[in-house]
Amino acid sequence: MASLLSRMAQPLTPPIETLKTYNFKKCWADILAGITVAVIEIPQGMAYALIAGVPPEYGLYTAIIQGFFGSLFASNEFVSNGPTNTQALLIAATVMRLADPGDTAMYLQLVVGLCLLKGIIQLIFAAARMGNLIRYVSRSVIIGFSSGAGVLIAAGQFKNFLGIKIPYGGAKLPGVMGDIQKLIPHIGDISIHAVGVGIATIALILVVKRISKLFPGPLLGVVLAGAAVVMFGWDESHLPLVGEVPSGLPEKLYMPWHITYKQAEVMLGGAFALALLGMIETVAIGKSIASKTGSVIRPNQEFFAQGVANVIGAFCQNIPGSASFTRSVLNYQAGAKTRYSGAFSAVGVAVIFLACAKWAYYIPMSALAAILFLIAYALVDWRYMLRIFKTNRADAAVCMVTFLSAVTLPLHYAIYVGVFLNIALYLRQASQLRMAEMVRSPSGPFVERPLQEKHGRRTVLFLQMEGDLFFGVADELRDRLTRIQNDASRVVIFRLKRTHSVDSTVLQVIEEFVERMNELGRHVILCGVRDELMDEMGHYGLVKLIGEENVFPTSFGVFASAQKALDRAKELIGGSIDATDIADQDDLEYWAYEI
To answer: CA 153, CA 45: separation in Å to the nearest integer?
Structure first.
């Protein structure tokens, strides 16, 4: 009972463990790093709220609550949690299927409900220890999805960058084509003021970035854009503005209690995609930083941290959030020492928000759109895509299909399409039987060569099988064994040293082969059999069928088990075995060996 309670409490221990070695020096470094991240997170949070279709303050609520709780329980101490671009885009894609952002009450209820649903899914994944699920999502899927998300973000922000007010809905085409379809009828409403502010904001951020990556270019761009609005006396008639942003706690709470079962059912697919995407982002970010710090990433702990942050966030009017690569790297580069830098960042956002909320009214929407254009461009990893298109067609296909799915289908489908393709390609590769022929060179050592259709008239055929022998390779194995059975070899040796596992379907195929060989008065020998594999075969009855004297477990010596198998083959055929018995010397030198 005590061990069970200890295991249940384990995910709650990271902040306590950090406190044991905490001191003033680390605290001061965390405060400085937290403030640095906070000034970047404020314009980002507002911009990501814009993508999600909610008022700007909801992005800041998310930065405060999820930034605080997510950092406390994460396995990586430098990860910064809060609103992110891909999460925000997926939120909008999911919720806009059920409500129009113009219907504020219903839309916010659904967004908050989505946050709660995502958090619950992540906690269930953590409890079930399903962190290894992310192994089935390759970098090609992430790059394809992120690149598609970047295109969607940019396409969705053209209206704000151009200063055009377009009502939600009305598009008959999906994805990017829908954004273009809505924009074209209003092309004559472009605001020169908005475009000018947007271009100036982009130029300023790029210049500041060249000077110092630690300097808050986006925040400076937003502040100067707002100052320009005040200085020139511009208002909504000149360019769209953020408008009034309430300071402090939200005046009205939008809780998900009125969401119907049917709506929840529709949101479930998006919630799963958000949970999986959030996990992938967090672990990828954590691994990137861990490569510099030497820390260890625990996927199940990350699921727990994200789940806690989203569940608590749902009761504090948050949108679904995750880890941010930009803010996490900035947190590390700014000198953060522990996980409490994330908590200080959250406090910093809260203080600045409370003090400056009234000035947010003057921020031009085109300035936020400019920030999002730069973020969208950074999401498209041109270098990686170019490399895989030159080197790996399978990865390139996965990346391209995921990208096209992201820009043409409901966004959460892109994650599922990418994962499905990954698994399909993995199964295709895994179902290719790896069987090589072991031949003995005149100098003595064994070498491997590809198994051919014709084996000559060798008395002994020595084969090596590799990898996982599961039902996917059963048919190919049966065909090969049938051809081997029709040859003249009196003894067939299988070396299983590199065989990881054998399922019941393959065991049956081997059993049928052994039975046919026995009927023909021939023999099968196994060598290099690991202990766990020996137990499986013993329970199945295969060891008894082959004969215990013909099954040799793995041993420490190089090819020691193989030599025992050859000695046994010598006994069975009643003669000596030399190189010509297990190799065709005439063609040996022409083989391309697979060592």
So the answer is: 15
Name residues whose C-beta falls within 8 Å of residue 261's C-beta, 6 or more positions apart in sequence.
none
User: Which one-letter DSSP state was computed for residue 453?
Assistant: S
pTM, to two decimals: 0.71
* Distance of alpha carbon 293 from alpha carbon 118, whole angstroms: 30
- Domains located in the chain, CATH noted: 16-426 (no CATH), 434-584 (3.30.750.24)
Write the DSSP string, 70-133: HHHH-SSTT-EEE--HHHHHHHHHHHTTT--TTSHHHHHHHHHHHHHHHHHHHHHHHHTT-GGG
pLDDT-based confidence at residue 271 (cuts at 50, 70, 90): very high
Report which of 308, 364, 268, 253 is spatially closest to residue 75, judged by C-alpha positions. 308
Q: Give the best-scoring range by mean pLDDT among 61-75, 152-166, 216-230, 231-245.
A: 61-75
pLDDT band at 594 (very low <50, low <70, confident <90, very high): very low
User: Burial of 418 by CB count in 10 Å (0-12 exposed, 13-18 middle, 19+ buried)?
Assistant: buried
8 Å CB contact between 345 and 83: no
- Type of residue at 126: A
Mean pLDDT of the chain: 82
